[in-house]
Amino acid sequence: MEIYIPINKILERIVEKWESISGIIDSVVFSRPLILLQVIIGVISVALITGIIYLILNSDIIKLKLSKIRTFLFQAHLEDKEFIISWKKIIKMARSNNSKKHREAIILADDLANDVLADIAILGKDLEEKLENAGDRNISNIPELISASQKAKELSDDEGILIGRKEAIEILVIYEKLLREIGIF
C-alpha cells in the first residue's frame, strides 16, 4: 500500500505557511513602537562599535603591532644611504686625534640612533624614552645604549669635557650594534 500525496497540496501548504509567517514578520517589523526601538538600538550599536574601535586603535598593543607592520613595510627606507653616510662621517671623526671631534662624533651618533628609532616608529621624546618603549624589538644592548646616551647628553651640555679616542670608539661600538640589529647595515 503506497501513500500518495499530490505535490500541488504540498506546495499549497508551504505557500500558506510562508504567507502566515511573512504576515507576522511584517506586523512586528513595521509597527511604530518597534521602529522607534530599532532606531534607538541602531544608534546605541553604532556608538558602542565606534567606542570599541576607538579603544582598540588607542591600545598600546595595537600601536606596537602597527609599528611592527610599518617597520616591515618601510624596511627599505631604513637602508637609506643618508644613515650610512652619516655613520661614515661619525666614524671618521672618531678616528681623528682631536678630542672635540670625538665629542661631536658621540653626540651625532646619539642623534642618528634617535632618528633611526623614530623612523621605525618607536615613540618617545629622546633616545632613552624610545629605548624604554622599544618593547620586544631585537635590541639587545638597551642598558649600554642608555648609558651611552647619558654620556652624549653630558658631552652636549658641558663643552669642557674631553673624551679620548678609545672611549669614543667604545661608545660608538654600542651605537653601531643598535644600527646593525635594526638593519641599517
Task: Describe the fold and architecture.
With 185 residues, the chain is mostly helical. Helix content is 77%, strand content 0%. The protein is built from nine helices and no strands. The protein has helices spanning 7-29, 32-57, 60-73, 75-78, 81-95, 99-119, 127-132, 142-157, 165-182. The longest helix has 26 residues, at 32-57. The protein is rod-shaped. The mean pLDDT is 80.
Share in helix: over 70%
Shape descriptor reads rod-shaped
- N-to-C series of helices and strands: HHHHHHHHH
How many beta strands in the DSSP annotation? 0
Summed up, the helix count is: 9
Which band does the percent of strand residues land in? under 5%
Could you list some keywords that capture this structure?
single chain; rod-shaped; 185 residues; mainly alpha
